Amino acid sequence: MKVAQNFSVVNLTQQDIPVIIEDTKTRHPWIPVGIIMPDDFFQNITDSYNNSTTNAACVGGIADMIFGKGIYCENESLKNDFRKMLSQEEIKRVIFDFKLYGNACFQVYWDDSHTKIIKMYHTPVQSIRAQKLFTSPKVEGYYYCTNWNDMKAQRNKIYIPAFGTSKEKMELLYMKDYSPGKFYYAQPDWFAGLQFAYVEAELSNLHLNNIENGFLPLVMVNMNNGIPAPEERDTIEDMIESKFTGTRNAGRFILTFNDDKERQPTIETIQTDNLHEKFKYVADYAQDRILVSHRVTSPLLMGIRTAVNGFSSNSEEMQTAYSILQTMTIEPFQNLILNQLNKALTDGGWEDLGLYFEQSTPTALLASQAADTGQTIEDVKKDIAEVGENPAVTDTEGEGVGGEAQLEQTPISMSNPNFTKEYEVYKTN
């Protein structure tokens, strides 16, 4: 007669592929956007930046390269006015949001006649939710809240009309790129690498807790005091899972109390060969996938050194990789930002600005290019600046800008998300 074996497999938490969901059936007048929970998109993206070293390096490095030395205008008569209207610090913050979240926005303030923009500020895009569409074919407004997870804070939310839809003193210019299947929001260009950012974060938790609590191998726990009822078995499994599984519980010990020695649980170690090599493979693979999602042609450009760089020398790698990254990643971002910003400023009474990004190229690459072409470093800088201009918004027959954009900057103040205060300041002037 065969004895029935009662064997349970404890299923660990499963992670599905991240998908951005716009909750269009919400009862709220705004549209929540989430990945795991109904409105956790921005928080998950923020966590992936804070907890993944490779992701943080890529987001920060590429955002800095997009910004370069800032946005300037060719029109000599408008340079000072443009600099006062929109500071470089506000632009840099918007670019960082654009790279990290795939979405960014400006507070836009108009003069009393609503004919010209007089000031633009960065607004933290994670605090913004789009107004739900009913009959209008486009979003006509947005809601600002300091904490969308706090019901009390939601009651104090502020409604802001979208840029170009009202005659209000302040409007919100929401900037995003096209994302298939999305209407209200956009997904960041690196979103396909979000899971691997989670992997890096979990690996760091695993190693940290193993170091703090001691190393514990995989084990099988056999309970020798009879077969419990299904409900009781499920309870025991849940207790063991909550206490001893997950990266934060690495290294915990088991303490049991028994009536006699024969009923004590047996704990058998499950040997896993080459575990350190498997962890290293997962870490290297996760890092590689994150770099691919950001379209980083060489980790060295982000300050990341890997065992195999794919070039015969670091100098050759830097030059070739920088050129590819500039063409395939940086310039598309810059053109997108310049096009949207230029259109808004043109509608806002600022014409013939000739906006362009002044590139920030590594000195080593400038020196190498200058040696190859027989030019000076300043000439190379000028050529790069001219190539980096956006043909959609600049005059191709105008003069090169060169070093003329090197203007002394006025003191930069921090962004103020307090809309009411800013509204009153400009209302009284």
Helix-strand sequence: EEHHEHHEEEEHEEHEHEHHEHHH
The strands making up the biggest β-sheet line up spatially as: 5-4-9
Structural class: alpha+beta
What's the story with the biggest beta sheet?
A: 3 strands, antiparallel
Indicate the percent of residues in helices: 40-55%
- Spans of at least 5 consecutive residues whose pLDDT stays below 50 are 5-13, 391-429
Can you count the helices?
12
Compute the CA-based radius of gyration.
Answer: 28 Å
Calculate the mean pLDDT score and round it: 79
Number of domains: 2
The counted number of beta strands is 12
Global shape: flat
Strand content: 5-15%
| Spatial separation of the terminal alpha carbons | 95 Å
Describe this structure in words.
This protein has 12 helices and 12 strands. The protein is an alpha+beta fold and 429 residues long. It folds into 2 domains: 21-190 and 316-429, no CATH class; 196-291, no CATH class. The strands form 5 sheets. Strands 5-4-9 form a 3-stranded antiparallel sheet. A 3-stranded antiparallel sheet has the order 6-7-8, with no helix packed on it. Strands 1-2 form a two-stranded antiparallel sheet. Helix 1 (41-51) packs across helix 2 and helix 6 packs antiparallel against helix 8 (275-293). The protein is flat, with a radius of gyration of 28 Å.
